[in-house]
Amino acid sequence: MATPVPLQFAAPKRGMPPKHFADLSEDARIEALAELGLPKFRADQIARHYYVRHEADPRTMTDLPAAAREEVAEKLFPQLMQPLRHLTTDDGETRKTLWRLHDATLLESVLMRYPGRATLCVSSQAGCGMNCPFCATGQGGLDRNLSTGEIVDQVRNAAATMAAEGKRLSNVVFMGMGEPLANYKRVVSAVRQITAPGPHGFGISQRGVTVSTVGLAPAIRRLADEELSVRLAVSLHTPDDELRDTLVPVNNRWPVAEVLDAARYYADKSGRRVSIEYALIRDKNDQPWRADMLGKKLHKALGPKVHVNVIPLNPTPGSEWDASPKERQDEFVRRVIAQGVPCTVRDTKGSEIAAACGQLKADEQQSA
What we know:
Helix content: 25-40%
Number of strands: 12
Radius of gyration: 21 Å
CATH topology of the largest domain: TIM Barrel
Number of helices: 12
Cofactor: [4Fe-4S] cluster
Distance between the termini: 49 Å
Strand order of the largest sheet: 1-2-3-4-7-8-9-10-11-12
Order of helices and strands: HHHEEEEEHEHEHEHEHHEHEHEH
Protein name: Probable dual-specificity RNA methyltransferase RlmN
CATH architecture of the largest domain: Alpha-Beta Barrel
CATH class of the largest domain: Alpha Beta
Family: Belongs to the radical SAM superfamily. RlmN family.
Strand content: 15-25%
Enzyme class: transferase
């Protein structure tokens, strides 16, 4: 078993929210309810409301004693977030929400409906400390980590939205604001609640959950040892250390070879293919020789246990970073495939509603 390595990053600027039901272990929930004079079976009863019926207000939980509902609400269900803005596109199929948290921190999530499935892109931090220059969130810096409850409640809100439409939330991707593995314990706790069957979780298949990272190699290995079968997505963006040191500054600490070695460890432990995310940027990382190098390195490091997602860059206003032309994108994909590595272009949604991470938050701050 790999030894966890402490990860040191810039300290978040703001305080964590009050404890929420989703932040607590089962024993802690029972203890908290006992302090209110309620028996332990109420913990499962409340969990069924929250995870199965997607209710977050004990005042509406009519099978709880009427005299206890207000106290349960105050002690276990503080309001974690309020919707500030909703933006929709794709004929209403894609909805981006800007949330205001208890301390006025801003947070984004995106609900995307596809034929036969619905995917929520969740945030794991308010802002991000990874400082990738082409990412709006990275340029805004890190406000703070999100609590487990704040992560889980993004999922509950989306699940409630889909249930109201007579449908089901089927997929959750940790590809929103923040670096998930820099908020490791809370993200893993959230994943377990997302995938646990009711009444202890939302019952979403682990195969429908993706955890993304810019390449925190020790944390990738640690995640592999959790014995989960969620998909790992590595935001590589270039196969060479020289450019990646600039595009993904954490590469100075964990270079490409070390990241791919950790990714192979994850693939072997989980039995899942690793997804390599590659934001294609005009004249930066879209050269044919980089496509060849990417295919060769991935084939050598991961063999059949890898798939490349090419992502057309969603540029931020005024940025020097722009998407590659369609013909260059197609040639890049062709050359990666020629090296024996599956490669597809991601079906991007929401570009006209600032769906790239951090854009809506930046817009709100500029207009405030």
